[in-house]
Design a protein that fits this description.
The structure holds 2 protein chains of 2 kinds. By secondary structure, chain A is mainly alpha-helical. Helix content of chain A is 75%, strand content 3%. Chain A has 20 helices and 2 strands. In chain A, strands 1-2 form a two-stranded antiparallel sheet. Chain B starts with 8 loop residues before the first helix and ends with a helix. In chain B, the strands form 3 sheets. A two-stranded antiparallel sheet of chain B has the order 1-2. Helices cover 71% and strands 4% of the residues of chain B. Chain B is built from 25 helices and 6 strands. Classes of the chains: A mainly alpha, B mainly alpha. At the A-B interface, helix 7, helix 12, helix 17, helix 18 and helix 20 of A face strand 3, helix 5, helix 6 and helix 24 of B.
Chain lengths: 502, 646
């Protein structure tokens, strides 16, 4: 029997060990070792999950553990995983390791920086394994505060403004989530006036449709803010671009996925009837985000802003997949979460590494880096190709799955939305190739670029780790389908309930 | 049944060579990269020969009909219980033919590049990209699944992007590579939506099942052909959109603008990708879905025919005015692909009716040989002259005898002079067009005449005309290229001369049954005479340096300028992208985001700030103030209560 709490324990111990570190080297190695152990634990979890499923275990959640936390309100520490959460845990683990490696040469306040990074990952892990709504919310909040500090202290540019904006908007989102969770809680009478936060139990109770109709928007929009739901996305560009490299990677790679995961696991799963009623709204907003984000990206001049807006567009695919409510589309949404997490971490990582050397992120001031920084420029191009959905990379698998799933909805409205979403891949190609063509190809723009050194070993390691993860999905998508197929089926049974009652 | 998993080696060998050269070549064995790449391609070519022999002479035929054989298949991505992307190998006459063409031409190009790219410091990168391209192209031709073809379609697109932009420090090369990728990507959007429609209508992505369901199964056919949207059935829409993707890759109107610019890439690349293999992918795609086009959606096939014919004529006219030899060849490629397209478009399914299909594939085959040859000759010339401009050349026949003869053979082949290969395939195309659509036939004949003219204009200007004046005196002596470059020229010239004698219809036909088409001597007299006329005019105008062409251009100044300016299609695109997409869509959206959406968020924050600033003033810390608030509030409440009670 696997004990999931170890996934929280490892980062906790790492964080404490980081605090006790004496010098920068010690701190870095402690953080790195801790995160690598966590990655290995995640991989071990993947295999034990596959073994359980192969042995015929069809329970919805595996490796469950629960103990009462605050019995007066029936709050429990209740954890368990299915394939979708394992995919998210693996994503988090990979991004954390890569982020720590890329921040290896952090100059100031090492101890605090790595402590916050590990704390952030702790929140994410806790969030992905929680099955008790209150505990889940607790971890969600835990993952917000460190971001404020990371941007405010180690950031660049207009960092106070960005940090504040990000923290406030995400807090606003979580306030909506909290209200939604409480409203859900008070609608779950499981006998004798006792209520529950237990996600699985709630899913078996049918909450009246009228009630769902007002709870669902609270939860969906609340989580949606985290995943840059249009029009609540503006924290993303400012936040991402002011954040230090590792924090951008986390923010886009993991934090935005908390929202997508919440939209699926909490909002859609618990309120299937409302999800069906609101499907068109979600599709509308998601399509708007996809197209709007893509065109907004087209006009950006700063590489980080560019990737931030493109994240808005790409996260739109997650919401589109969820909003379409077909099994294929939801599988696509989950793959897109993993894929976008890896890809955007790679992209932000490479932008950060280039910035460290060239001291500019303005596309117009860059040029010809392929000549002097062949490794980093190649990484940049690979991240770009993944972003434009080239086959062989994870983005293609995710997008195509979303499209195929979305096309199963025969209504004209959904068809048009799907075609518009497809059209965004052309715009993506335009902005990626424009950026790549100007910044890493072409003649060398600045004599100073000739005196820069290519990637250090830690940076190479981080890039290779992320690229391998991306390729593993892009080349062999069947393993991730195997991982999430059964669980999406179980979720679909609940969502299908919403369809049949309409 | 022979164990056929060894066929997997054909695409895998180039892929392994890509990985090996791409990851390790630059650091560990930069000198050997070209050898590794070439050997792996040679092995692929040999295996393809074996496969072709087995398929055509041993296992392919059952009762006189060539079968479609799925030699290998694995599920790659399962979408839903009956829809999945499979990776596999489909053997049928056209895929086996394409295997031969791709591996053979690619092998030739690999050999040629050893000489052409000699001394280039990034040769390992070049060979790894070349291997990547060959892998993708092979994956494309053996696809069993329409999504598999789309995947490799994108991969050839990116390989083409990487190779066009090989000289990445040249801004023009970067711009050309971007343009090529983006224009084809735009067309691929059509392909993707087409796939979605077809997969929805047939509930499968597998080619064989899809073709079967959409040609014979009435249940699927009824829903696919009746559902109407703007007057066309869902099936017609789907196929037309798929064709749009094909038109993008094959540089048909209106997606042709990337091809001439793609000539920025190294010349061997132009020969391989932009002449012989990738650009015919669109033709191949239509041929692959041909039964559906022909039986269930003739309107879509009509579109194919007219787009092909117009592109063909259009490109031939432009080719007559260009002066960059690679651009002339690029337009000629577009024109010849137009021939293949309209041949498919006028074809019927099965028996004699299917002549156009056979002719199209035949022309694809012969064209690959002579057009690759033309480009390689052009490469040898450019290598020597160090210029792409026709006007810098002239009188090279004595300095480069081998190149001269091979180029002449290629010109005769493309012009359609018997007994060279192009004659046979072009006659069949014209014959098929003659029997089904006189308008298209007329355009075809006109194009054939123009082809003869511009090809020999090229030939005479390069090799005859004025004597060659080299910038450096000593280079005028050693004219001919190294052996690694000449050998492919000679081999390709040999095939360009003789491949027309193959009885192509015996092997490749629309329904798999042998199509015995006799040579129609009486029919072929007219096209040959017209071609000779074109050559004659070119001879008269360009054999010796004179001012007649200049006068002619001035005489037709309006039309000449329009054709020289490529009919301003590029400018139109530029206007659409810059003027509309950027300025009328992108800029307002960015403005809206910054000022309205984000402004709204900031406004709400500053409103809160303003309110709290205002309220804060009440907390002044002065007892007197608090006393005033206290009494004011008390009086206020008292008044309120009195008001409420009364």
């Amino acid at each position: 029997m696997t004990n999931l709490s170890i996934l929280i324990l490892i980062p906790l111990l790492t964080a404490l060990a980081v605090l006790m570190g004496r010098n920068a080297i010690q701190i870095r190695f402690v953080a790195l070792i801790g995160s690598v152990i966590q990655l290995l634990a995640g991989i071990a979890l993947l295999f034990s999950y596959l073994a359980e499923r192969a042995a015929g275990n069809t329970a919805q959640m595996l490796f469950e553990y629960r103990c009462s936390w605050y019995s007066a309100l029936n709050i429990e520490y209740y954890v368990g995983v299915d394939g979708i959460s394992i995919a998210m845990i693996l994503l988090t683990a990979v991004v954390v390791v890569a982020g720590i490696l890329i921040s290896w040469n952090m100059q100031t306040l090492n101890k605090e920086f790595f402590f916050l990074i590990v704390l952030l990952s702790l929140g994410a892990y806790g969030f992905f394994i929680s099955l008790d709504l209150f505990t889940l919310f607790f971890f969600l909040e835990l993952a917000v505060i460190p971001k404020y500090l990371l941007i405010g202290i180690w950031g660049s540019g207009n960092k106070e403004y960005s940090a504040m904006k990000l923290a406030l908007m995400l807090m606003g989102g979580s306030a909506l989530v909290l209200v939604g969770i409480l409203a859900t809680y008070f609608n779950t009478n499981i006998g004798n006036g006792v209520h529950t936060f237990d996600l699985i139990k709630i899913s078996q109770i049918s909450i009246p449709v009228q009630t769902q109709m007002y709870i669902f928007p609270l939860l969906f929009v609340g989580f949606g803010v985290f995943t840059a739901l249009f029009p609540f996305h503006t924290w993303a560009p400012d936040g991402h671009s002011s954040a230090p490299t590792a924090a951008s990677m986390f923010l886009a790679g993991i934090s935005m996925k908390l929202g997508g995961y919440g939209c699926l696991r909490v909002a859609t799963y618990l309120m299937p009837e409302a999800a069906h009623q609101y499907s068109w709204v979600i599709v509308l907003l998601a399509t708007a985000a996809i197209i709007y984000g893509a065109f907004a990206t087209l006009m950006q001049k700063d590489l980080k802003y560019m990737n931030a807006y493109s994240s808005v567009s790409h996260c739109g695919f997650v919401l589109l997949g969820i909003g379409m409510l077909t099994k294929t589309a939801i599988i696509g949404a989950v793959i897109q979460m993993v894929s976008h997490g890896l890809m955007t971490a790679l992209f932000f990582g490479s932008i950060g590494m280039l910035y460290e050397r060239t001291h500019t992120r303005q596309v117009a001031q860059l040029g010809g880096l392929l000549k002097t920084l062949p490794f980093l420029s190649t990484v940049f191009i690979i991240a770009g190709l993944c972003s434009l959905g080239l086959p062989g990379f994870s983005g293609f698998v995710a997008e195509m799955t979303v499209f195929m799933g979305a096309w199963q909805r025969p209504e004209l409205f959904n068809r048009i939305a799907t075609i518009l979403a497809c059209a965004s891949i052309v715009v993506t190609a335009v902005y990626i190739l424009r950026a790549a063509g100007k910044s890493v190809m072409g003649p060398i723009a600045n004599e100073q670029f000739k005196n820069v050194t290519d990637a250090r070993w830690t940076e190479k390691l981080a890039s290779i780790l992320l690229i391998v993860a991306i390729l593993s999905i892009g080349f062999a998508p069947f393993w991730i389908i195997d991982l999430i197929d059964v669980d999406t089926q179980l979720i679909m049974e609940n969502i299908g309930r919403g369809l049949s009652s309409n | 049944m022979i164990d056929s998993t060894y066929i997997l080696l054909i695409p895998l060998l180039p892929f392994l060579s890509f990985l090996l050269i791409g990851l390790l070549g630059r650091t560990y064995f930069p000198k050997q990269c070209s050898i590794i790449g070439t050997l792996s391609l040679f092995a692929s070519f040999v295996i393809s020969l074996v496969v072709a022999y087995q398929y055509f002479f041993q296992i392919g035929q059952v009762n006189g009909i060539y079968q479609k054989i799925t030699a290998f298949k694995m599920v790659w991505l399962q979408f839903s219980p009956n829809i999945s992307i499979d990776m596999g190998i489909l053997l049928d006459p056209i895929s086996v033919m394409m295997l031969l063409v791709v591996t053979f031409i690619s092998f030739m190009i690999h050999v040629y590049s050893m000489g052409y790219m000699h001394g280039d410091p990034r040769i390992s990168v070049f060979y790894s990209f070349l291997s990547l391209f060959t892998f993708s192209m092979l994956g494309l031709v053996i696809s069993t699944n329409i999504f598999q073809i789309y995947i490799f379609w994108e991969l050839v697109g990116i390989s083409s992007f990487l190779l066009i932009g090989y000289y990445y420090e040249k801004p023009s090369a970067v711009a050309a590579s971007k343009k090529a990728f983006i224009v084809t990507r735009f067309a691929d959007l059509g392909f993707l939506v087409g796939i979605l429609i077809l997969s929805f209508q047939s509930e499968t992505l597998d080619f064989q099942t899809l073709i079967e369901r959409l040609t014979t199964d009435t249940e699927y056919l009824n829903s696919a052909t009746t559902a109407s949207f703007f007057g066309f059935s869902a099936l017609t829409w789907g196929l037309t959109l798929v064709f749009a993707g094909g038109a993008g890759k094959s540089a048909m109107l209106p997606f042709h603008i990337w091809l001439p610019d793609a000539m920025e890439g190294p010349t061997p690349v132009s020969a391989l990708i932009h002449a012989a293999t990738m650009v015919v992918a669109g033709v191949y795609l239509v041929a692959r879905l041909f039964p559906v086009f022909s039986i269930s959606a003739p309107e879509a096939l009509n579109i194919v025919a007219y787009v092909g014919a117009f592109s063909s004529l259009f490109a031939a006219i432009i080719a007559c005015t260009q002066t960059d030899i690679k651009r002339v060849l690029a337009y000629s490629t577009m024109s010849q692909i137009g021939f293949m397209m309209f041949a498919l478009g006028v074809s019927g399914y099965g028996g004699e009716e299917g002549l156009g299909y056979t002719a199209s594939m035949f022309h694809l085959f012969t064209h690959a040989m002579f057009k690759a040859l033309l480009f390689l000759c052009a490469g040898a010339v450019i290598h020597y002259v160090h210029s792409n401009e026709m006007n810098d050349m002239g009188g090279l026949r004595k300095l480069m005898p081998v190149t001269h003869i091979t180029f002449l053979i290629a010109c005769l082949a493309i012009t359609g002079i018997p007994p060279f290969s192009g004659f046979f395939s072009k006659e069949e195309i014209l014959l098929a067009a003659y029997h089904s659509n006189k308008l298209i036939f007329a355009m075809g004949i006109l194009t054939a005449a123009l082809t003869a003219f511009y090809m020999f204009r090229l030939y005479f200007t390069i090799f005859w005309s004025k004597p060659f004046k080299s910038h450096q005196a000593e280079t005028a002596h050693h004219g001919e290229a190294p052996g690694t470059m000449l050998l492919p020229l000679i081999i390709l010239a040999f095939f360009a001369a003789i491949t027309g004698l193959i009885r192509f219809g015996k092997y490749v036909s629309s329904d798999g049954a042998a199509l015995i088409s006799e040579l129609h001597v009486d029919f072929s007299i007219a096209p040959v005479l017209i071609a000779l006329l074109g050559i004659g005019i070119a001879y008269y105008l360009y054999k010796k340096e004179n001012d007649t062409p200049q006068k002619l251009a001035t005489g037709l100044s309006g039309f000449y300028k329009a054709a020289y300016g490529k009919f301003y299609i590029d400018e139109l695109y530029l206007f659409i992208t810059k003027g509309i997409v950027f300025n009328l869509v992108g800029r307002p959206i960015a403005w809206f985001d910054k000022n309205i959406v984000d402004g709204g968020i900031n406004l709400s924050a500053s409103t809160v700030g303003y309110i709290s600033e205002t309220i804060k003033k009440f907390q002044s810390g002065k007892v007197q103030d608090y006393a005033i608030y206290f009494f004011a509030a008390t009086i206020g409440f008292v008044l309120l209560f009195i008001y409420l009670w009364s």
